Amino acid sequence: LNKGGGVKGAKVELVVEDDGSTSRSEATAASRLVAKGVTVAIGTYGSAVTEASQDIYDEAGIVQIATGSTSIRLTSKGLKRFFRTCPRDDEQGRVAQQTLEKLGFKRVAILHDNSAYARGLADESRTLIKKAGSAEIVFFDALVPGERDYSAILTKLKGVNPEAVLFTGYYPEAGMLLRQMADMKWSVPMLGGDATNNTDLVKIAGADAAKGYRFISPPMPSDIDTASARNFLAAYEAKYKSRPSSIWSVVAGDAFMVLVEAMRQKGPDSAAIAEYLHKDLKDFDGLTGKISFDEKGDRVGDLYRLYEVDEKGSFVLQK
Fold first, then answer.
1. How many whole angstroms separate alpha carbon 27 and alpha carbon 24?
2. Which residues contact 216 (CB under 8 A, 6 or more apart)?
3. In the chain, what is the greatest distance between 2 CA atoms, to the nearest angstrom?
4. The whole model's pTM is what?
5. How far apart are the C-alpha atoms of 92 and 226, rounded to whole Å?
6. Three-class SS of residue 258?
7. CA pair distance 251, 255, nearest whole angstrom
8. Are 255 and 299 in contact (CB under 8 A)?
9. Closest Cα partner for 74 from 66, 301, 25, 91?
């Protein structure tokens, strides 16, 4: 961007703070960015962590675009300068319910990790499954993230004889669950949410254990046939000799791109940027598809797709 002249002749500077993936550290990081005079803020990933920064940016009059924070309540507060390039938990829950129904599973176990994201998605999925009457929920409980041995909760899960397990937590635990299920020689289909879209899941589980694992997620750039996605992927592979390991760095790129577009049209004024994103940005050609925002700052459109891990450990988009 800067090599091409920046935005209206001004160079863009990235000012980076590490939120440590905790709410307390995020509040500190956001306060530091405000003190440094940033124009806009991109991030962060986790819903609970993002929530710790919302009021700080809003009170400072700074536009914030979250990248992986799917909790519904983040856009229910009437904050005019808050946006996100990821979808919401209720949309993900809807796709999870429809996917489980389409695959024909009638006895479903739901496992989460009590985080704001995972519990929110678990609750939404349970509500929608019950409302649709598409399956019986035979298990609903949480594991403790970060542990190395999940044999106890897997034994409880196996005891209720589910036809499928919906795990709404993150990829490290999903990988451990898959590996330990294989060790138990218990073969039951498992469906995950978008926090498991990371190639490290296969490294943790092993390719054999990960084979057949399904998850729902925004599409990767390799599955988007647009010029911006193709160019991004080519540049990324040229620099890093690999493809992005996770969708969440890519939707951060989407946030950067829409902010640049807004500043090209309206300059650096925060109120003007927010108004442009709400009212004038329509079907912007992003890395993960078309991008528009509604009056709440939520991304508009049907974004989630179903992926399955193949025998090589690759994530394959399901048609």
1. 5
2. 92, 95, 96, 99, 191, 192, 193, 194, 304, 305, 306, 307
3. 64
4. 0.85
5. 24
6. helix
7. 6
8. no
9. 66
Quick: pLDDT tens for 36-56.
Answer: 999 999 999 889 999 999 999
Which amino acid appears at position 239 of this protein? Answer: K
The average pLDDT across 73-102 equals 95
- The number of beta carbons lying within 10 Å of the beta carbon of residue 244 is 20
Give the integer Cα–Cα distance in Å for 143 and 53. Answer: 27
Residues 172-190 have pLDDT tens digits of 999 999 999 999 999 999 9
Question: What values do phi and psi take at 234, rounded to 5?
Answer: -65, -45
Q: What residues contact residue 55 under an 8 Å CB cut-off, 6+ apart?
A: none
What is the pairing mode between strands 63-66 and 40-42?
parallel
CB 118 within 8 A of CB 170: yes
Taking the C-alpha atoms of residue 314 and residue 316, their distance in angstroms, rounded to an integer, is 6
Q: Are strands 284-286 and 40-42 parallel, antiparallel or unpaired?
A: unpaired
Nearest to 283 by CA among 298, 293, 275, 296: 293
Contact (Cβ atoms closer than 8 angstroms) between residue 79 and residue 58: yes
Element (H, E) at 139: strand 136-142
**Contact yes or no for 259/273 (Cβ under 8 A):** yes
Contact assessment for residue 194 and residue 246, using Cβ atoms and an 8 Å cutoff: no
Whether the upstream peptide bond of residue 44 has omega within 30° of 0, thus cis, is yes
